[in-house]
Write a structure and sequence with these properties.
It is a single chain. A six-stranded mixed beta sheet has the order 1-5-6-4-3-2. 47% of the residues lie in helices and 10% in strands. It has one domain. Strand 5 and strand 6 form a beta hairpin. With 281 residues, it is an alpha/beta fold. The structure holds zinc ion. Zinc ion binds next to helix 5 and helix 6.
Length: 281
């Protein structure tokens, strides 16, 4: 798999092109038939890591073993759920399934607050990076997966907390992912930029990608958005981002304002749900 896409909720359009990464899935077939398409979670591999959000690791398909080992070893889901648990008090059960999906794409079921992330996105992301030349580090691959998880969990939070969303929810979910990463500082900035690079590579390999209703912005647009957020948050460290093929000068000028608006929108939406002591740097 070399593309990034997303599935969200029953009836949601699944992207046929683009990087794999949104908010459906595994619970609809599971509820209907026990298991279908994605693996049944293995209860022995379930934990909450103190966040109140349950993580299920499905038994990987043979082709997903490397991806499964990578995600478990890097504790990507644990980091995401821990960060969300520290952010907000969610009084409804939420869960994250890390599973084999047979190319279906990461997703989130809005009604059951379940997020699904696919093992094969690890190999898909590696393949995207491989096409550019020197192999990117495991850190970059893990960053893309973490960004995907935060994006999916944004959808889940919108549903479970009934948050207001201004503009397209897909764009808001990207902004939430950026928010959760950029608050980490320089490390998070590099993680957002790794995700942006993956989006750009995905755009280059999916020339027919479109922006239909309810779907994401194009992958190229998402790459530029992420770079704009990084530049807007820390322009002094990222002047090299500005360029015609990365972040056009005209867009760059407004990125501080753009990022502040995106950040403020989420902070306002989450205000009554934030845990005591949670702050942005
Ligand atoms: Zn999404």
């Amino acid at each position: 798999m070399t593309s990034r896409g997303e599935v969200r909720g029953s009836g949601w359009a699944m992207r046929s092109a683009g990087r794999v990464g949104a908010c459906l899935g595994w619970l609809v077939p599971m509820a209907a038939a026990g298991v279908s398409g994605c693996q049944k979670p293995d209860p022995s591999r379930t934990g909450t890591e103190g966040s109140g959000i349950v993580i299920h690791y499905g038994t990987p398909a043979d082709s997903d073993r490397e991806g499964a080992a990578f995600l478990r070893g890097r504790k990507v889901a644990e980091e995401a759920t821990s960060a969300i648990g520290a952010l907000v008090d969610v009084d409804r059960p939420m869960s994250v399934g890390v599973v084999s999906c047979d190319g279906e794409g990461s997703s989130c079921d809005p009604e059951a607050t379940r997020v699904k992330v696919c093992y094969d996105e690890v190999s898909g992301t590696r393949e995207l990076f491989r096409r550019t030349g020197p192999r990117r580090s495991d850190d970059a691959v893990a960053a893309v997966m973490l960004e995907t998880l935060f994006h999916e969990m944004a959808h889940a939070l919108v549903d479970v907390l009934e948050l207001p969303v201004h503009g397209r929810e897909e764009d808001a979910a990207d902004q939430f992912a950026a928010l959760m990463l950029l608050r980490k500082g320089a490390v998070g900035e590099q993680q957002v930029l790794a995700a942006a690079e993956a989006w750009q590579l995905s755009e280059a390999t999916n020339e027919d990608a479109d922006e239909g209703p309810g779907t994401h912005s194009s992958d190229g647009r998402r790459a530029a958005d992420h770079r704009c957020y990084v530049y807007g948050a820390a322009s002094g460290r990222h002047r090299g981002l500005v360029g015609p093929d990365t972040l056009p000068d005209e867009r760059a000028k407004g990125c501080a304002e753009e990022w502040n608006a995106a950040r403020a929108s989420w902070m306002t939406a989450l205000a009554s749900h934030l845990r005591d002591g949670w702050t942005l740097p």
